[in-house]
Amino acid sequence: MAARRSLADSLRWMAEGGRTFFAALAGLPDDRLDRPTALTGWTGRHLVAHVAANADALVNLAHWARTGEERPMYTSFEQRDADIQAGAVRSAAELRSWAAASAEQLDRRLSELDERQWSRPVRTAQGRTVPAAEIAWLRAREVMVHAVDLGAGVGFGDLPADFLTSLIDDITAKRSGAGDGPALTLTATGVHSSWTVAGTGDPAEVTGTLAELAAYLSGRGPGPGDRPAPPLPRWL
Ligand code: ZN
């Protein structure tokens, strides 16, 4: 169902997600960044370092899209993790300015792309080949979901409904493709949308708001409703 998402949508969500993330970050005092987040093993510093490094990595893809010269997001998964660990020991002030500067740089690089370059194939960190237009979506979901992870009071219910729908499309496709989790049938209340996730066992039925479904599917909340839904590992 990925066809529901246009480049204009992704750019709009990327801009709104950026505003949401940086407003949440600005509201967190420096010492809060030293504390653990809901993401296992990550403090606020790790999270900010990751969001900054993600923008740098997507600048690589923007270069690839503009020039056709292959430039992967990260050298390797090990390098990606090492950069987050190294970034996390920087001062709060350095982390804040790295995150802001890298986001601005990404905006600039993407604003240079023309229609042909937006459709040029690039490769994501997961090894998928996608049109460059996906760069905007990859960034949108990072800043939106990690704005929630900052623990500064932003919840999935604060994110735009059309973004949440696209996020659920994305995660259900990813989890179905992997096929190694529980089979699920998901129904969003109020918007007449439903999804299935291919997997093991009889499909568990999960019904909730878009925000509840997105939180659950991304491994950031219990399944909504009376019956316990099968737990899912973290995504993103
Ligand atoms: Zn992330």
Provide structural commentary.
The chain has 236 residues and is mostly helical. It has two domains: 2-154, Four Helix Bundle (Hemerythrin (Met), subunit A) (Up-down Bundle), CATH 1.20.120.450; 158-217, 2-Layer Sandwich (Nonspecific Lipid-transfer Protein, Chain A). It has helices at 7-26, 44-67, 77-87, 92-111, 115-118, 134-149, 161-178, 210-217, and strands spanning 121-123, 129-131, 182-188, 193-197, 200-208. A three-stranded mixed beta sheet has the order 4-3-5. It has a two-stranded antiparallel ribbon with strand order 1-2. Helix 1 packs parallel to helix 6, helix 2 (44-67) packs across helix 3 (77-87) and helix 2 (44-67) packs parallel to helix 4. It is globular. The structure holds zinc ion. Residues 50, 142, 146, 236 line the site of zinc ion. The site of zinc ion has 4 residues, from helix 6.
Distance between the termini: 19 Å
Class of the largest domain, according to the CATH hierarchy?
Mainly Alpha
Overall 3D shape:
globular
Q: Could you state the order of secondary-structure elements as H and E?
A: HHHHHEEHHEEEH
Look at the structure and name the CATH superfamily of the largest domain. dinb family like domain
- DSSP helix count? 8
Largest beta sheet: what is the strand line-up? 4-3-5
Care to count the β-strands? Answer: 5
Judging by the overall fold, what is the CATH architecture of the largest domain? Answer: Up-down Bundle
CATH topology call of the largest domain: Four Helix Bundle (Hemerythrin (Met), subunit A)
Estimated helix fraction: 40-55%
Q: Which class do the helix and strand fractions yield?
A: mainly alpha
Radius of gyration (CA) equals: 18 Å
Instruction: Return the domain count.
Output: 2
> Main beta sheet: strand number and arrangement?
3 strands, mixed
Uncertain segments: none
